[in-house]
Amino acid sequence: MPVQWKDRIVSTPDVLRGKPRIKNTRIPVGLILGYLAAGSSTDEIIGEFPDLLPDDIAACLDLARDLVDFEVAA
């Protein structure tokens, strides 16, 4: 079953000023996407952040895909 980002990513104003983050952590989605953009593998990212699961990283990509596909009403 594909990972749904809404199951793993949260945004609350009292943590990281509302930036999207992995649920139950203070790890921002943008940080994970930056690692991926720099060519890091899932295993390398988990090596840096042992609290993460592969599905957390997949959820970051799923959120990014949804944001790119988002259409603003005219």
How would you describe what is shown here?
The chain is mainly α. The protein has one domain (5-69): Arc Repressor Mutant, subunit A (Orthogonal Bundle). The protein has three helices and two strands. It has a two-stranded antiparallel sheet. It starts with 8 loop residues before the first strand and ends in a 5-residue tail after the last helix.
Summarize the structure.
43% of the residues lie in helices and 5% in strands. With 74 residues, it is mainly alpha-helical.
Features:
Arc Repressor Mutant, subunit A; 2 strands; 74 residues; single chain; mainly alpha; 3 helices
Number of domains: 1
- The third-level CATH topology is Arc Repressor Mutant, subunit A
Query: What overall form do the CA principal axes indicate?
Result: globular
Quickly give the structural class: mainly alpha
At CATH level 2, the architecture is Orthogonal Bundle
Order of SSEs: EEHHH
